[in-house]
Amino acid sequence: MPIPVFTHTICELHDPGPGHPEAPARLRAVRERLAREPAAVLRDAPAAPEAAVRAVHAEWYLDQVRALAGAGGGALDADTILSADSWDAALRSAGAAVAATDHALDGAGNAFGAGRPPGHHALAASGMGFCILANAVIAARRALARGLGRVLIVDWDVHHGNGTQALVETDSAIRFVSMHQWPWWPGTGAAEERGVGNIFNVPRPPGLPPERYVADLWAALVAAVDGWTPELVIVSAGFDSMRGDPLGGFTLEPAHYAALTLRLREALPAAPLVGLLEGGYIPARLAEGVAAHVGALA
Fold first, then answer.
1. pLDDT for position 1
2. What are the residues facing 113 on neighbouring strands?
């Protein structure tokens, strides 16, 4: 059965400016590739419900982002630049995460949210690292609000999901596993950072054989679910951990993401799986990584 991919063309209108790595071409390539993928069916993502966003982010910060975009755009920080359409794009990106989660919780199976801007660096009251809203955490909080008791977030982006960790590290209902390049931006994600026992960081150097990254991430996942069975798995699916990405030095290929996805499904058969787009900065490579992940979801 094809996997629903919640996305929206509005997300392509978020424009950080010429030469910025997080460019509209990223999502355009993903959408074009998935339109040809038998395992996927594209669906329009709604804007995220206000309550779902405010469950994660400070009201004054959301007002700031809305006002800055409404004034034509500007910088949240040196890397996170808004254009006039960025607020609407961020709401649709978060909306894709919420819609994919609702689809899974309604018993309809796995799903993928293909939005931009990405989310795993966003904090409660600030954007950073190209991210405006914390999409994975918004999705996790949505699941908890709907009655789930345990949500696992897996992040295989090459950069540490510092925003995700900061937002969940005191919440025992959510466990977070992140494999990321170390040392590397943003400088967080040491193995010693454990939260309330719910944080499982896997910092690794660049240039290792891909099988080493897969094995080390899997070992952390096994530890995370030991005696703790999640009811939903959310994957912060960053494909800048792929070989050749300009913003990282990992060596994964599309087949490795497919294999990890299948192993997750086999190890946790009762937990639906929701993938959410994070990094990946060669559009054509990104699109192939996403297609491999979505194909494995199906």
1. 83
2. 6, 276
Q: What is the longest distance spanned by two Cα atoms in the chain?
A: 50
How does pLDDT run across 194-252, given as a tens digit for each residue? 999 999 999 999 999 999 999 999 999 999 999 999 999 999 999 999 999 999 999 99
Cα 286-183-226 angle, rounded to 5 deg: 75
Q: Which domains does the chain have, with CATH numbers?
A: 3-297 (3.40.800.20)
The model's pLDDT over 24-54, given as tens digits with 9 standing for 90+, comes to: 999 999 999 999 999 999 999 999 999 999 9
14 is catalytic: no
Task: Please pick, among 121, 159, 160, 256, the residue that the annotation labels catalytic.
Answer: 121
Has this prediction a pTM greater than 0.85? yes
Which backbone phi and psi does 45 adopt, to 5 degrees?
Answer: -85, 135
Q: What is the DSSP string of 194-245?
A: -TTTTEEEEEE-TT--HHHHHHHHHHHHHHHTTT---SEEEEEE--TTBTT-
Identify which of 107, 125, 156, 152 has the alpha carbon closest to the alpha carbon of residue 293. Answer: 156
Torsion over CA of 275, 134, 179 and 21, rounded to 10 degrees?
90
